[in-house]
């Protein structure tokens, strides 16, 4: 047996875990059972809370392959423990991708039911099944067809026919039903889980303890509070489960058409689908029930649920390299991420489909259930990572310290052992106040309500506190800092390798038949949905600038004309010259051409825009011509590299740089006349690399991306508050730098250093070229071959420019090279990195992780498109999209600009300071009450049942919930609130208040017993000390000392609340919080009233002494103490008699002389008898 058999599952992924195997041990189970019975079930609770202890207490270590129980620990910073029961599944085989013979699965299962080799070991954790794999000797997750590492050609050749019934049933053994099963737990299950929370167990323990000490009313009040808290929590949790369940219900069960072989189809439920099934996408659309790759046809998809992008995207069929005219070059491994333009994701809405004559739109199921893109999103919501914040860790430590202090208080006690135990436990329950969780969340709840008023919604309220610590915010550019739409600024055409002068409009009659305008009109992914043009905003602006019309062929037209294109574009008749003729006219279409009399261009094939390639292209055919044309558009540098050198102007780089420096977004166009041998059907299977080469450069389109009016002001506010701002965009580097300067992210006098990293090539090491953004030709340092040399030269450069602030800028490609080859430089670069351009979605996430690794509190603000990973990873992700993608972001703003960022930080700071104030107040409240009870215990007394009730409900709860109402300060300041409780100023503040409160309580406690009128004159019971417990509980509670301590501590609670209710610079001043001010004044007034004007009913209820003018006499005594003591004895005697209520003697009374208790004392005691 391998004692130290440790495996790693999900290696390299976000949910990577260490796995250990254990087998159940009978004698350990018996011992644990006996221990649980002896401890009254407490041991069972402890093992329920601690999975690691539970497994080690009931099992023995074993090899992972033989384990009955799997113990897992996450490898992240939280080090969470999980346990899972290993089960055995009897299946007809071990590999889900095996092809079965024609016999039925059930028959095979019966044949092999007793064969141990056909058993499959697995366990389930977080809605994911982990199966034992003999070849790798570890548990693994079966995700779907991607496990096979299949090439694009094999998807077509091996998986396009679909599965038969037997194969489908066999695979369902392993993959289960295709459903994202969000089970809504019953209220009883939720109740049990909630009640077993350690806090509520502590509450139960406290209630039992208080009942044994006859504090029935107080215990009842705490029970009511706990019931309300549990009911509220259950309602919230149940509501969240129902919302999640409804969110996935739309596509959980739908009817789909499944292909069985080449020509056979059948109707089936979507829950029966398994990876490898081929489904038919209906023409009227469907909400996808799984992840599938298109192998035939085209779909228009709304992916807003996943990406936040409201613009429908066009999904094309997966290229089949084996049908390429070159014979299958570039046959890549299929990946949902790399080939997302051909993949239909679960939960996305298929709006409509396009298909060729006689063919159905088909897709191969790749992933099902929780393995799908939407399933993983739902899993991240169902099983979120805990929020790691220093405040919460310090809070637990602080509570433990309070409990330790409370335990030490009773060291001096000389009471019987039973009394010591009961009172020690009682003081611990006082130290951890029952209202603490509600009090700590009050500020967050109020902040959430205020955020809702300004259009900011949160699905993770606990992160509001973390927002108060943000010191760096990353912004997406397009749609976030700048307007979402682009405006056409102009065009600059190229002819004979030279630039023309820039032109404002593209819809001029003289340009309508040029290749430049044809490229603008045809090279896009626009489509018509219910008669309206829809698609990428950039495509839409370009197409509208031409003034052309887009027409989609009807179903009847495609049925009659096999070669007619599905979509074509044409200019309006008023833009055409009087006569447009073509020497090569297709006689087959002459009738249609004569009827139309238009310059129509049909779109034959579309290669969608790829962020990795930074370009898109189309193959078109002008109606009436035999040969086809290819049009290309994309990033200027990329397009120029694909064009013939003689067609690219010599001053291309200078012209491009000039435009990008001014902040324009530049797109380049290119054209190529295709060979006549390329037919319609060959084009459908050709690789895009065969089309996108040897192009003729056509020119540039210049788009203007205007800053949002709010952007500069918000960034200036953040800069004044010492909050760094970083731009993370997919746009051009120089354009991004220009926008950064325009919006104030980079100050005019600051220098920008571009880091241009190059990967290893031809045996040379990776290197970084450094140059100024405004002097690209003048390099600061020469290319650096080694990292040591580069560091030396770079440090010299930095010393020269320390006079001015410097910023680093880099592209996504450079960022990837730096991550791989220059890890030691990475953190130094992000320290001053301000512009990150051409960044892919996963690189945005990596950047956020890198910034967090150097202890920045990072916020991320994006429009939801391609920002989901970074929004989830950041401490505070703010989505400007109101779509369903906001479920991946902790915060969503309905205001489509970045004013939400300072609002969120201000409210976060206010909530954080409120949490500090409330925690300090609750800590002081616990200490004050602990001191009060300890002092009263020393004379055999205690606070009364209703005194506890008055303090906890009338004072503490009211004050806590009103002191949290302070709204945020109107502006951001440079100072940041502390992140934890363990800091010098906070500890000094708390300790100082503890010493002051302790001093005043002890002083009042000792002073009241030295006063001349301290006796049983006023019908109060003199406290009996430790040696006398014969008096009733009421006699031990209702006495002069108790009343004094009660009043002093009540005033202390109010004073501490006022002292700790901090205002500026993070919250509005407390005097503007009228509920808090009013509550404090009413409580202070009430306490003074019952002191100076006693009401018998109130005093009986609060169990305080009904002194005759108790307060007046205290005040008089204090005033008299300030007067000079008379020298003459007669004056001193007269002063004493003036405050003696039994002098002069009352009429009809007798004064008797009694001997003194000590025989040596010859004095007499005088007692008046009526």
Condensed summary:
The protein is of the alpha+beta class and 1170 residues long. 38% of the residues are buried.
Please characterize this protein's 3D structure.
By secondary structure, this protein is of the alpha+beta class. Helices cover 41% and strands 19% of the residues. It contains 40 helices and 42 strands. The strands form eight sheets. It has a ten-stranded mixed β-sheet, with helices on both faces. A nine-stranded antiparallel β-sheet has the order 23-22-32-31-30-29-28-27-26, sandwiched between helices. The chain is elongated, with a radius of gyration of 39 Å. About 8% of the residues have low confidence. The longest helix has 38 residues. Helix 8 crosses helix 13.
Number of helices: 40
Low-confidence segments, ≥5 residues, pLDDT <50?
101-117, 325-329, 559-564, 580-597, 775-792, 797-803, 1021-1035, 1162-1166
Largest sheet: 10 strands, mixed
Mean pLDDT: 77
Give the CA-based shape. Answer: elongated
- Estimate the strand proportion: 15-25%
Structural class: alpha+beta
Indicate the percent of residues in helices.
40-55%
Q: In angstroms, what separates the terminal alpha carbons?
A: 95 Å
Rg from C-alpha positions?
Answer: 39 Å
Q: Biggest sheet: strands side by side, in what order?
A: 20-40-39-38-21-33-37-36-34-35
Number of strands: 42
């Amino acid at each position: 047996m391998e004692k130290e058999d440790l495996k790693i599952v999900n290696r390299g992924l976000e949910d990577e875990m260490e796995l250990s195997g254990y087998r159940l041990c009978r004698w350990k189970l018996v011992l644990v059972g006996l221990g649980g019975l002896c401890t009254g079930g407490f041991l069972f609770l402890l093992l329920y809370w601690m999975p690691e202890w539970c497994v080690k207490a009931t099992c023995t270590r074993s090899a992972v392959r033989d384990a009955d129980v799997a113990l897992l620990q996450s490898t992240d910073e939280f080090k969470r423990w999980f346990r899972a029961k290993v089960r055995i599944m009897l299946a007809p085989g071990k590999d889900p991708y095996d092809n079965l013979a024609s016999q039925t699965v059930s028959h095979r299962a019966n044949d092999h039911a007793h064969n141990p080799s056909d058993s499959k070991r697995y366990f389930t954790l977080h809605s994911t099944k982990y199966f034992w794999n003999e070849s790798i000797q570890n548990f693994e997750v079966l995700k779907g067809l991607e496990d096979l590492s299949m090439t694009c050609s094999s998807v077509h050749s091996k998986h396009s026919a679909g599965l038969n019934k037997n194969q489908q049933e066999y695979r369902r053994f392993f993959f289960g039903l295709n459903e994202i099963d969000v089970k809504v737990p019953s209220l009883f299950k939720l109740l049990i889980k909630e009640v077993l929370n350690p806090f509520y167990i502590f509450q139960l323990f406290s209630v039992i303890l208080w009942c044994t000490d006859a504090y029935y009313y107080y215990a009842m009040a705490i029970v009511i509070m706990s019931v309300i808290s549990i009911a509220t929590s259950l309602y919230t949790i149940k509501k969240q489960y129902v919302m999640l369940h409804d969110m996935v219900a739309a596509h959980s069960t739908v009817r789909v058409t499944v292909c069985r072989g080449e020509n056979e189809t059948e109707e089936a439920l979507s829950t029966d689908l398994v990876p490898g099934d081929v489904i038919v996408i209906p023409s009227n659309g469907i909400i996808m029930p799984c992840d599938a790759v298109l192998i035939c046809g085209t779909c228009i998809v709304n992916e807003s649920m996943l990406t936040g992008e409201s613009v429908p995207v066009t999904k094309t069929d997966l290229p089949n390299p084996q049908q390429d005219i070159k014979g299958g070059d570039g046959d890549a491994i299929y990946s949902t991420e790399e080939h997302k333009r051909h993949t239909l994701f679960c939960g996305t809405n298929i709006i409509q489909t396009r298909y060729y004559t006689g063919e159905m739109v088909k897709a191969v199921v790749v992933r099902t259930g929780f393995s799908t893109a939407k399933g993983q999103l739902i899993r991240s919501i169902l099983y979120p990572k805990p929020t790691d914040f220093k405040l919460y860790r310090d809070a637990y430590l602080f509570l433990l310290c309070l409990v330790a202090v409370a335990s030490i208080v009773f060291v001096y006690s000389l009471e019987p052992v039973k009394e010591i135990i009961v009172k020690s436990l009682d003081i611990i329950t006082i130290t951890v106040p029952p209202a603490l969780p509600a009090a700590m969340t009050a500020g967050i709840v109020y902040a959430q309500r205020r955020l809702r008023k300004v259009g900011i919604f949160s699905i993770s309220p606990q992160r509001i506190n973390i927002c108060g610590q943000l010191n760096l915010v990353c912004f997406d550019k397009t749609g976030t800092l700048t307007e979402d739409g682009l405006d056409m600024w102009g065009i600059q055409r190229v002819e004979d390798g030279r630039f023309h002068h820039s032109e404002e409009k593209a819809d001029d009659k003289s340009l309508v038949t040029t290749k430049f305008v044809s490229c603008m009109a045809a090279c896009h992914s626009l489509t018509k949905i219910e008669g309206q043009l829809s698609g990428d905003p950039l495509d839409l602006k370009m197409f509208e600038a031409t003034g052309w019309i887009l027409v989609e062929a009807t179903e009847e037209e495609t049925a009659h004309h096999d070669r007619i294109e599905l979509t074509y574009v044409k200019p309006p008749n008023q833009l055409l010259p009087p006569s447009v003729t073509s020497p090569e006219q297709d006689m087959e279409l002459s009738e249609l051409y004569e009827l139309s009399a238009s310059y129509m261009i049909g779109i034959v094939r579309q290669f969608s825009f790829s962020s990795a390639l930074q370009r898109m292209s189309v193959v078109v055919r002008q109606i009436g011509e035999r040969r086809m044309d290819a049009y290309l558009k994309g990033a200027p540098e990329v397009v120029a590299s694909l064009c013939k050198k003689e067609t690219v102007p010599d001053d291309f780089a200078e012209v491009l740089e000039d435009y990008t420096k001014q902040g324009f977004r530049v797109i380049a166009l290119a054209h190529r006349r295709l060979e006549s041998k390329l037919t319609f059907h060959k084009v459908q299977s050709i690789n895009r690399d065969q089309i996108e080469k040897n192009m003729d450069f056509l020119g540039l389109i210049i788009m203007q991306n205007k800053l949002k009016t709010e952007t500069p002001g918000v960034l200036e506010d953040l800069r004044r508050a010492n909050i760094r701002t970083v731009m993370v965009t997919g746009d051009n580097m120089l354009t991004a730098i220009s926008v950064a300067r325009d919006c104030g992210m980079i100050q005019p006098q600051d220098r920008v250093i571009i880091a241009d990293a190059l990967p290893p090539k031809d045996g040379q090491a990776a290197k970084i070229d450094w140059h100024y953004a405004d002097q690209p030709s003048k390099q600061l340092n020469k290319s650096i071959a080694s990292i040591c040399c580069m560091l030396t030269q770079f440090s010299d450069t930095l010393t020269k420019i320390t006079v001015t602030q410097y910023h680093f800028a880099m592209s996504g490609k450079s960022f990837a090279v730096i991550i791989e080859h220059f890890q030691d430089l990475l953190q130094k670069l992000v320290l001053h990195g301000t512009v990150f351009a051409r960044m892919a979605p996963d690189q945005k996430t990596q950047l956020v992780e890198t910034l967090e690794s150097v202890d920045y509190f990072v916020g991320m603000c994006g429009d939801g498109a391609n920002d989901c990973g970074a929004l989830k990873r950041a401490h505070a992700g703010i989505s400007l999209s109101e779509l369903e993608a906001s479920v991946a972001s902790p915060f969503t703003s309905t205001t489509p600009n970045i004013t939400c960022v300072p609002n969120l930080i201000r409210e976060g700071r206010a909530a954080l300071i409120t949490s500090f104030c409330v925690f300090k107040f609750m800590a002081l409240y616990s200490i004050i009450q602990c001191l009060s009870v300890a002092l009263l215990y020393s004379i055999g007394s205690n606070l009364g049942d209703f005194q506890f009730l008055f303090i906890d409900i009338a004072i503490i709860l009211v004050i806590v919930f009103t002191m949290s109402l302070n709204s945020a300060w109107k502006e951001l300041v440079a100072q940041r609130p502390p992140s934890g409780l363990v800091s010098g100023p906070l500890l000094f503040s708390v300790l100082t208040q503890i010493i002051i409160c302790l001093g005043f309580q002890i002083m009042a406690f000792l002073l009241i017993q030295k006063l001349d009128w301290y006796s049983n004159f006023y019908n109060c019971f003199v406290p009996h000390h430790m040696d006398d417990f014969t008096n009733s509980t009421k006699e031990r509670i209702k006495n002069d000392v108790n009343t004094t301590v009660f009043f002093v501590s009540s005033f202390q609670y109010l004073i501490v609340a006022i002292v700790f209710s901090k205002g500026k610079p993070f919250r509005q001043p407390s005097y503007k919080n009228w509920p808090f001010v009013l509550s404090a004044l009413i409580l202070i007034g009430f306490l003074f009233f019952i002191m100076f004007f006693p009401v018998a009913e109130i005093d009986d209820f609060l169990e305080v002494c009904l002194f005759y003018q108790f307060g007046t006499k205290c005040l008089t005594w204090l005033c008299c103490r300030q007067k000079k003591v008379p020298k003459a004895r007669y004056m001193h005697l007269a002063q004493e008699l003036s405050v003696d209520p039994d002098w002069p003697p009352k009429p009809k009374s007798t004064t008797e002389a009694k001997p003194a208790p000590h025989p040596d004392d010859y004095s007499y005691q005088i007692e008046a008898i009526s």
